[in-house]
Amino acid sequence: MRPRSIRTAVSTADLPSTRTAETSLRSVRSALHPAATTPELWAGVHLSEFDPAQGLERLATRAQRFTPRVSLAPPDGLLLEVAGSLHLFAGVTGLRRELMEECLSLRVRPVLAFAPTPLAALTAARAGQMLVITDLAQLVGQLAPLPLDALRWPEETRARLARTGVRTIGAVLRLPRAGFARRFGMTQLAQLDALTGRSRDLRAAFQAPVRFRRRRELDCELSDQGRLLTELVPLIAALGAFLTARQCAVMELECRLVHRQAPPTRCVLTLAAPCADEQRLAALFGEHLNALRLPAPVRACELRADQLMPQLPPGRCLWQPGEHGGEAGEPSDGLIDRLRARLGSEAVHGLSLRQEHRPEGAWIVTRPPPVRARPATRDRATDEPCGAGPQRPLWLLPAPQPLAAPDGLPRRRGTLRLSSEPERIETGWWDGGEIARDYYTAVDGQGVRLWVFRERTAPHGWFLHGVFG
After folding, report:
1. Within a domain: residue 338?
2. Strand 109-115 to strand 77-81: parallel, antiparallel, or no bridges (unpaired)?
3. Which of 100, 106, 203, 383 could form a disulfide with 378 if both were Cys (CB 3.0 to 4.6 A apart)?
4. Distance between CA 116 and CA 113 in Å, rounded?
């Protein structure tokens, strides 16, 4: 006889009894949704005497070799869903032993507990009880003797329950649900439901940081930079495919050149903006390799990118540069990267503004140059301020130069013509660098725009402080 196929619709009239109907419906659900009836088993890891400086994420990354479903329970806990991994480690006993050895290798002493719900496993581990509960029907009975402090409820809530004689989980589960919610809130009631499996406890899965590492063994030892770059091209192409698949970019890239009898040579490429262009990265590495002195021939190359950044598409303006307020031109990140590759990182620096009224202290030198942030979409109608601020020159002199003023007006290649209203700056009285000046925009006899000021205190001298472009 041919086997009858499973139907999604089952009529109770075709079945001899109610029990048979329930059994058939359960089998249909299991056949259609096998994962829905698969029980879960969670391992709760409580890290006693844990140093947060070591990083909980480091242990979570190592724990992913047991199961892909790892969740963080900061500041001192981990959760692992291990139902599908038990057959790989000879059951709960083998998994407990392997997980304990993994924690001890990181010099961390854990308390492990297993339960059908994540909060139950974590609560038992926090209480110091190494329970193994695999049946949901036995969950409440095993958790009942545990102290209420293991749930880590607010101190005020635990104190109020203690005054009424409720000090264990079993005692709080015996309280009327409506009265408990009215007196202590729905948050604690929801945690009790998640603890006992009455409601689903959804945990965010931990995602280990993505990094790129690729090594290439050379057929022969090389000391020529040009041939080394040729050997690096496949690694850079693999990096480009890796970044494209994840829509990421890099800000820093490291190449390690391995020698036979010398420490590896590190070639670090630091970029001014996130980049995923293979050709650009290869060209910059070529510049770095040309300036590199190798202590010995190279036998292997390794390319590393430990920090990835989201790659955003380049912003484009609707108008052409210079048309209807279009952007002035392309960013200069490529120029900055080439200059740093050829001249060295110390030869190129950036400028940043400071909250300072004194012109000579309103900027600082930054190394490396600041990362360019993409400008936000601006509203052309409201972008400009209501009143135009005073203009400042880009070129400031290292120190103000005194100007002659025989008749009260400053002179430099002739009498200067003041073309702006005065900008008064009086500040610095709190740190010993007090100034009191009136700044003007002036034009000399050859049409050069200058930035000059007159001291407000005697002898009221004139000084040249900057030149406009």
Report:
1. no
2. unpaired
3. 383
4. 10
The whole-number pLDDT of residue 265 equals 92
The pLDDT tens digits for 304-316 are: 998 898 887 665 5
What's the start-to-end Cα distance of the chain, in Å?
96
Whole-angstrom Cα distance, residue 99 to residue 185?
37
Matching residue, tokens 């400009």: 384
* Strands (E) located in 223-264: 248-259
More confident residue, 36 or 50: 50
- Whether 42 and 114 have beta carbons less than 8 Å apart is answered as yes
More confident residue, 147 or 314: 147
Average pLDDT, integer, range 205-222: 90
Query: What value does the mean pLDDT take over residues 330-348?
Result: 74
Within 13 Å, how many C-alpha atoms sit on residue 180's CB side? Answer: 20
Domain end residue (candidates: 196, 225, 248): 196
Q: Note whether 195 and 123 are within 8 A (CB).
A: yes
267 occurs within a structural domain: yes
Q: For residue 353, what are the β-bridge partners?
A: 363
> What is the residue range of 299's domain?
212-310
**Predicted pLDDT of residue 350:** 77
Do residues 167 and 220 share a domain? no
Pull the structure tokens for residue 85. Answer: 């991994």
Average pLDDT over residues 206-210: 86
- Phi, psi (5° rounding) for residue 356? -145, 130
For the stretch 414-453, pLDDT in tens is 889 898 888 999 888 888 888 899 999 999 888 899 999 9
Q: What is the mean pLDDT of residues 89-107?
A: 91
Provide the β-strand partners of residue 457: none
What's the CA dihedral at 189, 193, 198, 203 to 10 degrees? Answer: 130
Structural domain count of the chain: 3
pLDDT at 372: 53
Over pLDDT 70: what percentage of the chain? 81
The string over 253-269, giving b where at least 16 C-beta atoms fall within 10 Å of a residue's C-beta and e elsewhere, is bbbbbbbeeeeebebeb
Which amino acid is located at 133 in the chain? I
R_g over Cα of the chain: 35
Token pair, residue 242, equals 């890796």
For residues 448 and 462, what is the distance between their CA atoms, to the nearest angstrom?
17
Averaged pLDDT score across all residues of the chain: 82
According to DSSP, the residues that pair with 465 across neighbouring strands are none
Is 160 in the same domain as 246? no
Which of 285, 284, 276, 281 is closest to 256 using CA atoms? 285
pTM: 0.56
Beta carbons of 163 and 144 less than 8 angstroms apart: no
- Which residues is 403 bridged to in the sheet? 462
Three-state secondary structure call for residue 28: helix
